[in-house]
Amino acid sequence: MFSKEQISLYDQSLGRVTLVGAGPGDPELITVRGQRALREAEVVIYDDLANPELLKLCPTARAIYVGKRAGRHCVPQEETTALLVAEAQAGHHVVRLKGGDPLMFGRGGEEAHALAAAGIPCEIVPGVTAAIAAGAAAGVPLTHRDHASAVVFVTGHECAKAETRVDWAALAKTGATLCIYMGARRLPQIAAALTAGGLRESTPVAVVTNASLPTQEVRVATLGSAGELAPTILGKPALIIVGEVVRLAEVLTQASALAVPASGVVELANVA
């Protein structure tokens, strides 16, 4: 990839792309650098998880929606990638605005690779990823000296064309906090695989939907009862946190200034 300094050496008439992480949802959680990129953009290509309020930062830019959510694909990824290349080759500064961090389960790596192959300068602006935001929103410290010294980010939804590469049994033995992206539809199967791998059914689970937004919801259960949460979170952006650190959620959400907004839903089951 190209650094910002390297990109500045290019003839700007050739066009360029900036992959910007929009953060978890709250428009105030985008970085200052991300805001600047939006203000400089001529074309903004954005998806479902990027808050449309951010488009107010670039009122003169041409905005193109390419959202996709489980079961609802507006624009295939191949078309989105081709669009990025075409707009840059037309001489535009293109901002690809992606929810969370552009390189964390957002296909930003695929897009950056395609841009590099086409010889198009590409800068990457990181963003607050969903796991970090969901942990803060739910009052769950993802690491804690008494409970977890490692964190694993893992997808609960892999490409349908490939065999699963996630070894849930191995993850169950790590003692790490597990942050599961895109796992709402498979929550019962994931919970069963983790218990089969050795985690106790009493292991606490937090599910955070719409993290950082006024519609945020936090529900805490156990692996043994996690399947019951699945119907309540389908169709919503959800992050699943599994591990002993979840036991701290009730205390921390009550004591912290970053507690769940009053408009959100908080269901803290007894997981002691």
Automatic annotation (TrEMBL):
UniProt keywords, alphabetically:
Methyltransferase, Porphyrin biosynthesis, S-adenosyl-L-methionine, Transferase
Its EC number is 2.1.1.107
Listed pathway(s): Porphyrin-containing compound metabolism; siroheme biosynthesis; precorrin-2 from uroporphyrinogen III: step 1/1
GO BP terms: methylation; siroheme biosynthetic process
Single GO MF descriptor? uroporphyrin-III C-methyltransferase activity
Q: Which residues form the Tetrapyrrole methylase domain?
A: 16-225
Q: Which domain of life is it from?
A: Bacteria
Q: Which enzyme type, at the first EC level?
A: transferase
Q: Which Pfam families match?
A: TP_methylase
Q: Which family does it belong to?
A: Belongs to the precorrin methyltransferase family.
**PANTHER family of this UniProt entry?**
S-ADENOSYL-L-METHIONINE-DEPENDENT UROPORPHYRINOGEN III METHYLTRANSFERASE, CHLOROPLASTIC (PTHR45790:SF3), SIROHEME SYNTHASE-RELATED (PTHR45790)
What protein name applies here? uroporphyrinogen-III C-methyltransferase
Question: Which source organism does the UniProt entry give?
Answer: Horticoccus luteus
| Lineage, opening ranks | Bacteria, Pseudomonadati, Verrucomicrobiota, Opitutia, Opitutales
